[in-house]
């Protein structure tokens, strides 16, 4: 496989696409809805996700976290498929492109979008790098929840509507939990090597048993949120019903996660990302027909 395909980690991209899809479809019925804004915001999110993946590859190699003992998919810097300089430059290019693309969104959305854009770029750099890497201090799941949940859904809706809504916040939290679950799978798989490297991820801090309990919460809470949103009158029934069908996938994932460890968790990384996309797509389809 082309090393650049390995570097951008396509299986993780639903983490960026899903929330932007929901945020924009939520605003679809607005008279001021802009397909251009929807496409540009999604492109910006994907560029940021790729930048995060490249930064993780580069900074984990430089800090000695990624070694020959790692159990996860091939990391292009550690394995020598790409030089650290090339990966660093590609990361910088993606961040620059995200900023250039995002400048249109900033012009359209004003200072709130400028603040979110600044925070997103800093988050991409500080996830694995900087003086206080978020991933090394148990904050990776929180970062995923905030940036690829709340910020992505609420921010994309704000770009279309010029305001936020309770629906956007509920859906942002729901998808944020699913994306946090992706991060937790990754960190649970790497517990042994991360411990040796001194990387104190949330999984390392909690231990395998509690990480399994937390994963269960992450994949089930989204359904509790949208059902509560329906009964409180904030969310329409059809999208909730359709998205609820993906609970079957969530249950299977939880069962498999509770019985797996180490390299056995590799397939669950992509499957958890697919759950994010399926949940988002089903809810979006429901919104279109409301």
UniProtKB/TrEMBL annotation:
InterPro entries assigned to the protein according to its UniProt record, in alphabetical order: MenA (IPR004657), UbiA_prenyltransferase (IPR000537), UbiA_sf (IPR044878), UBIAD1 (IPR026046)
GO molecular function, one term: 1,4-dihydroxy-2-naphthoate polyprenyltransferase activity
EC number: 2.5.1.74
A cellular-component GO term for this protein: plasma membrane
Catalytic activity: an all-trans-polyprenyl diphosphate + 1,4-dihydroxy-2-naphthoate + H(+) = a 2-demethylmenaquinol + CO2 + diphosphate
Localization per Swiss-Prot or TrEMBL: Cell inner membrane; Membrane
Pathway: Quinol/quinone metabolism; menaquinone biosynthesis; menaquinol from 1,4-dihydroxy-2-naphthoate: step 1/2
Keywords, ordered alphabetically: Cell inner membrane, Cell membrane, Membrane, Menaquinone biosynthesis, Transferase, Transmembrane, Transmembrane helix
UniProt topology in membrane: Multi-pass membrane protein
Biological process annotations from GO: menaquinone biosynthetic process; vitamin K biosynthetic process
Keyword Amino-acid biosynthesis: no
Keyword Protein biosynthesis attributed: no
Transmembrane segments: 35-55, 113-130, 142-160, 166-186, 218-248, 268-289
Family matches, as Pfam families: UbiA (PF01040)
Class of this enzyme: transferase
Function of the molecule: Conversion of 1,4-dihydroxy-2-naphthoate (DHNA) to demethylmenaquinone (DMK).
Xref: NCBIfam families: menA (TIGR00751), PRK06080.1-3 (NF004751)
Similarity remark: Belongs to the MenA family. Type 1 subfamily.
Name of protein: 1,4-dihydroxy-2-naphthoate octaprenyltransferase
Source species taxonomy: Bacteria, Pseudomonadati, Pseudomonadota, Gammaproteobacteria, Alteromonadales
């Amino acid at each position: 496989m082309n090393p650049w395909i390995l570097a951008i980690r396509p299986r993780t991209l639903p983490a960026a696409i899903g929330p932007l899809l929901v945020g924009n479809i939520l605003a679809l019925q607005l008279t001021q809805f802009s397909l251009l804004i929807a496409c540009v915001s999604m492109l910006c999110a994907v560029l940021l996700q790729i930048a995060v993946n490249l930064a993780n590859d580069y900074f984990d190699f430089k800090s000695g976290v990624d070694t020959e003992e790692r159990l996860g998919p091939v990391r292009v810097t550690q394995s020598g498929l790409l030089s650290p300089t090339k990966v660093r430059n590609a990361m910088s290019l993606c961040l620059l492109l995200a900023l250039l693309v995002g400048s249109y969104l900033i012009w359209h959305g004003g200072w709130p979008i400028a603040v979110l854009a600044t925070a997103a770029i800093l988050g991409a750099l500080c996830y694995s790098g900087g003086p206080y890497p978020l991933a090394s201090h148990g904050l990776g799941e929180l970062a995923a929840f905030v940036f690829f949940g709340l910020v992505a859904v609420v921010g994309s809706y704000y770009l279309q509507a010029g305001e936020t809504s309770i629906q956007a916040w509920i859906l942002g939290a729901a998808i944020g939990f699913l994306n946090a679950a992706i991060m937790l799978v990754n960190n649970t798989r790497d517990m042994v090597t991360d411990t040796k490297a001194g990387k104190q991820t949330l999984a390392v801090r909690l231990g395998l048993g509690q990480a399994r309990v937390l994963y269960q919460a992450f994949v089930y809470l989204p359904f509790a949120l949208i059902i509560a949103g329906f009964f409180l009158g904030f969310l329409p029934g059809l999208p909730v019903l359709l998205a609820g069908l993906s609970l079957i996938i969530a249950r299977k994932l939880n069962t498999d996660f509770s019985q797996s460890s180490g390299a056995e968790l590799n397939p669950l990384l992509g499957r958890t990302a697919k759950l994010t996309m399926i949940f988002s797509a089903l809810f979006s389809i429901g919104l279109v027909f409301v």
